[in-house]
Amino acid sequence: MKKLTELYSGKAKSVYATDDADRVIMEFRDDTSAFDGLKIVQLARKGKVNNKFNAFIMEKLSAAGVPTHFERLLSDNEVLVKKLQMIPVECVVRNIAAGSLCKRLGISEGQELNPPTLEFFLKNDALHDPMINEYHIRSFGWASDAEVAIMKDLTFRANNVLKTLFANAGILLVDYKLEFGRFNGTIILGDEFSPDGCRLWDATTRKKLDKDRFRQDLGDVIEGYEEVARRLGVEL
Ligand code: ADP
Ligand code: UDP
After folding, report:
1. Cβ–ligand 2 contact at 46 (below 6 Å)
2. Per-residue pLDDT tens for 3-31?
3. Contact status, residue 11 vs residue 33, Cβ threshold 8 Å
4. Taking a C-beta distance cutoff of 8 angstroms, is the pair 198, 176 a contact?
5. Which bound ligand lies closest to the C-alpha atom of 37?
6. Looking at domain 3-82, does it have CATH number 3.30.200.20?
7. In the chain, where the domains are located
8. Which of 35, 119, 127, 177 has most ligand 2 atoms within 8 Å of its beta carbon, as the pocket-test mutant?
9. 49-60 pLDDT, tens per residue?
């Protein structure tokens, strides 16, 4: 597999073309950003940890019937994935209240959400990823009704698999963001699942083990990610 030109460089990953028109290489960098790129630093080992973590989770999801773009790890920081036409909508599931939900609705952090709730955000940094609803998705043509139905179904199916996986490691899956794309007429899970895009709390102490350690200047950011990886059995 030949790595060709860089197609896109995002806040945390770079995407490269390959000699296969249907495959791209994603490179996980050590760059860490928050607040729409306002706060950016390099955190040693982050690229490697997230790459391995993501591969582990994608394989679990795929085994549980959630189709993903993951093909194979190429190196510590690189993964081969199917090239998707990305849908510019972030799907967020929340099992416990935290983050923007608390600010928006005046809810206290930690309240259990039963049933879990789902929100959509437009992937647009310049507009600070505004919250949108299914009618916006339809009216602006970001995805069809059938595609939205599939994204919702896959996002909740992932919740059942991942809640259990993390619970068995003594961790609460508080919330997470998924991105989907089109591949040969089907909708599949793209981007990444790592502690950069979800909230993970120790089930006993509620210690934060995810990117909130970076957002809130709590320190030991990558140590938190590595602890989750160790408990899940991810080989780093
Ligand atoms: P951002 O664009 O938010 O700064 P990243 O730094 O993570 O995010 O960049 C990765 C980019 O690659 C994202 O825009 C994401 O939508 C896109 N992407 C993820 N998976 C795929 C894929 N399989 N094919 C094409 N693009 C993808
Ligand atoms: N999230 C993400 N990328 C985004 C926005 C949110 O990965 O651009 C994740 C975030 O890490 C959290 C969940 O989605 O796990 C919900 O985020 P929230 O809406 O609370 O936003 P925040 O306050 O974290 O910006």
Report:
1. no
2. 999 999 999 999 999 999 999 999 999 99
3. yes
4. yes
5. 1
6. yes
7. 3-82, 87-220
8. 177
9. 999 999 999 999
Contacts of 58 (CB under 8 A, 6+ apart): 68, 69, 70, 189, 193
Beta-carbon contacts of 127 under 8 Å, excluding residues fewer than 6 positions away, are none
Does the predicted TM-score (pTM) go above 0.85?
yes
- Secondary-structure class of domain 87-220 per CATH: alpha beta
Tell me, using a 6 A CB cutoff, whether residue 25 lines ligand 1: no
Atom 8 in ligand 2: which residue has the minimum CA distance?
Answer: 129
Pocket test for ligand 1, best of 6, 7, 13, 123 (most atoms within 8 A of CB): 13
Token pair for residue 23? Answer: 């495959």
Cβ of 10 below 6 Å from ligand 1: yes
State pLDDT tens for residues 172-217.
999 999 999 999 999 999 999 999 999 999 999 999 999 999 999 9
